[in-house]
Please model this.
Amino acid sequence: MQTDIYARLRDLAASAEERAEEMRPVLLRVTTDLFALHGEHTPQEIRLYEEMADKLIADADEAVLTLVARKLARCADAPPSVLKRIRARGGAPEIEILLADRQIDRSELRQIAASGACDPACAVAGRDDLDREITKILSQRPEREVARALAANTLAPLAVEDLRQLCARGRHDVVLAQALLGRGEPTLDHLPLYLYADAAQREKLVNMVRAIGLVHAGRNDDAELDEAECLRLEEAALRQKRSSFALVLAEMLGCDHLCARKIVDDESGDALTLAFISIGLPREIAARIFLCAFPRVALSTEAFERNIGLFAQLPRRGATRIVAAITGEAKSAGAAWLRARARRAQSGVGAAGETASAREEAAPLSASGQ
Model:
């Protein structure tokens, strides 16, 4: 048998008139707890709660009002006037209302998503009833807090283009990247987040790239880095200074030094192996570099064999695609490719053939990984 909410509210209302002001916040919490016990209420119960709350809200501090807002926002028939008064107080109570109140009009949610302050926009991004329109608006906000809140909301319906945009931003934001990777199985759109993926996710990403058949029939994909460049990279590794090594690698990849440093600092060695394959470094030299400069990889039989084995498993174009997504430098396939192109030109490849070859080489290297 349900509690007689109306009778209980009436008793509390009488108590509120008799007790001191310091008791009013307590009464507000108790009254709200009682109101939130049931999903539906009679008109009398709603009216009485509204009358009591109107008297008690003014004496409640932010902590009490936040607790009240959290419970009341989830009541489908909560009095709109009470919710409005709580929102007017701003701060954490307003955030709780924005997170869950189904009575807020969609047009108002769109307005907050488009031009509201950062905290309210984050609250809207966390709602479990977002539509594609509001999600898209939120995904275009510049604040990283909004992007993180949206990515962490697994119920937010992200369109493919919105996911790609967020993944591109996640390349430089570990919190955002991990939230995006936590939304479900990775896709090719998640390639920019490779450095933040766990071992299982990385394996899936590599397998997807390999499976889509990036090596075209009859195309030489195996041109190796020339001897002088191999020696320069190996000497940089022997100096045992990662910053210097990253500078040399950045030049060969055609990417920013900070991006190259992230690849070098990846302790598993997976990203560095992909970079080695991408620039055409021979497997034997890659093994020597791991042995002399990356002991965490070299001293782990599993890690060493996995990375060296990747040379035989992943074509150069596949590795280049992943590295281009990691660095955001889709335009470059590495200095070795540029030198190989020059050698082909000297060998008599015509301008038309060279242009077509360059287009083929650039085609799969879109920033989104498509």
Observations:
- Confidence is low (pLDDT under 50) at residues 215-220, 331-342, 349-370.
- The CA atoms of residues 188 and 285 lie 30 Å apart.
- The longest helix spans residues 5-18.
